[in-house]
Automatic annotation (TrEMBL):
PANTHER family in UniProt: ARYLACETAMIDE DEACETYLASE, RECEPTOR GID1, PUTATIVE-RELATED
Taxon lineage: Eukaryota, Viridiplantae, Streptophyta, Embryophyta, Tracheophyta
Domain Alpha/beta hydrolase fold-3: 119-323, 411-452
Chain ranges passing through the membrane: none
Gene: CXE1_6
Annotated organism of origin: Quercus suber
Protein name: Carboxylesterase 1
Domain of life: Eukaryota
């Protein structure tokens, strides 16, 4: 998870508290070496990059994406118990692009005259993978909509190499022009178009940056849409010269060869110093008074390029905030004694020793119907109704098509959450199990167990604490 202080950059977002989000994971890519530099970088010569990326290059220079990525369908029905409504709207049917809008349910219960800020969001995936319906992108946007009390428009842009850059940038601009003229009731009734931010993670950050530059030069054409700034999370930029982080890091998740190939497949020409790859134009952003937030990590092989972007923006006088985490910070950083753990966990301790969980956690319903296009079926089965425990079973669809005598291994899985938070239905747990079922070709039984801080559990813990210590427990959790 990456921590960033939203109110330091999004002042117009009504002083929102620090938000912890799990941003989009780097895509599980591998690819061939792209020899753009005489400098050498550490690389694993035994890795088949295409196999790692799970793509195949076709004779016509398109790719076949071999891995089935779990998607999450939208939930537009207000009667559905989800905390965030979502719906898909076609943007350009000839290009097969569309948008997914996320609306916090609470917006329906408030005075429509109090409108919510808008974030236009672009997902990651190396320009070549994933889409706006991918579960990891859907859940990320839904969680942001809850935590920041905002409306999100997530853009499904065209992927390379079938559509090389600047296709994605063109799609981004088409989305901005659509937003300014749309009659859609969610945006019309609940979105404050004068309080808009453009955001993206990884290559989505690259797209957000270039969409922002274009919008800055066409400011009159996108009114009444008023951009207030950019939010770039680990933005994906590069150049022909190898950086120290590229030479130093032998990243098993995003090897340098993978990074190279994604550029090779997405750029219109093999020029790593092309503007699409290496940002240059910033004067207009300064003149418009936009604010920019850049978040990164020194374990990223693109780290120096992100630092260079921040330096360039500051030299141009752009109003910005940058936050770069250390890959070792969790091991070396001293504890902050001023942090209120209850506030941080978003819980309150009740008089009877139980807790109230204040944060609304996004859940994913099971999909037991074989006619549903999901690559992984799932269903819930009660385990002990008196304890309100149950299990969720994940079955790869491919198992239905194989000989029933060839059975799959079984994993019994228990989710995290510090013993006190989340459930087997939490989207982060559901998606993790669904991905494992696909990648490992296994059946998974995810167990919904009793969380701590039930009344009975609390009384037992207090009794044991008093028995062994002779003292009354103070603010005991767990």
């Amino acid at each position: 998870k990456v921590k960033y202080i939203a109110n330091s950059i999004l002042g117009s977002l009504h002083n929102y508290i620090t938000v912890t989000q799990q941003f989009e994971q780097k895509a599980h890519h591998k690819a061939r070496e792209f020899a753009m530099s005489s400098q050498t970088a550490p690389s694993n010569p035994t890795v088949d990059p295409y196999q790692h990326l799970q793509i195949a290059l076709n004779p016509d220079d398109t790719i076949t994406r071999l891995r089935e990525v779990p998607n999450t369908p939208p939930t537009p029905d207000p009667s559905h118990p989800t905390l965030v409504l979502s719906k898909d709207i076609p943007l350009n049917q000839s290009n097969n692009i569309w948008i997914r809008i996320f609306l916090p349910r609470e917006a329906l219960d408030h005075n429509p005259s109090t409108k919510l800020p808008l974030i236009v969001y672009f997902h990651g995936g190396g320009f070549i993978l994933y889409n706006a319906a991918s579960s990891i992108s859907h859940d990320h946007c839904a969680n942001m909509a809850i935590d920041l009390h905002i409306i999100i428009v997530s853009v499904e842009y065209r992927l390379a190499p079938e559509h090389r850059l600047p296709a994605a940038y063109n799609d981004a601009m088409e989305a901005l022009h659509w937003i300014k003229t749309t009659p859609d009731d969610w945006l019309r009734d609940y979105a404050d178009l004068s309080n808009t931010f453009i955001m993206g993670g990884s290559v989505g950050g690259n797209i957000a940056y270039h969409a922002g530059l274009r919008a800055a030069t066409e400011i009159d054409k996108v009114e009444p849409l008023v951009m207030r700034g950019l939010i770039l999370h680990q933005p994906y930029f590069g150049g022909s010269q190898r950086t120290q982080s590229q030479l130093r890091n032998n990243d098993p998740i995003l090897p340098l060869s993978v990074c190279d190939l994604m550029w090779e497949l997405s750029l219109p020409i093999a020029d790593r110093d092309l503007e699409y790859c290496n940002p240059k134009l910033l004067e207009k952003i300064k003149l418009l008074g936009w604010k920019v937030l850049v978040v990164g990590c020194d374990g990223d092989i693109l780290f120096e390029h992100q630092i260079e972007l921040v330096k360039l923006m500051r030299e141009k006088g752009v109003s910005m905030v940058s936050q770069f985490e250390s890959a070792m910070s969790s091991q070396t950083a001293p504890s902050n004694p001023t942090v209120d753990p209850y506030q941080h966990l978003q819980i309150t301790l009740n008089a009877d020793g139980t807790i109230t969980r204040l944060r609304e956690i996004l859940n994913t319903p099971p999909t037991p119907d074989p006619s549903h296009p999901t690559p992984v079926l799932s269903k819930d089965i009660p385990l002990n109704q008196s304890n309100n425990t149950w299990i969720r079973i994940f079955l790869p669809r491919e198992a239905l098509d194989h000989n029933s005598s060839t059975k799959l291994p079984l994993i019994v899985y228990f989710h995290g959450g510090g013993f006190i938070l989340y459930s087997a239905a939490s989207s982060i747990s559901h998606d993790h199990c669904a991905n494992m079922a696909i990648d490992l070709h296994v059946i998974i039984v995810s167990v919904e167990y009793c969380l701590a801080q039930s009344t009975a559990c609390r009384r037992l813990m207090m009794m044991l604490w008093k028995h062994y210590t002779g003292s009354k427990p103070l603010q005991m959790i767990g």
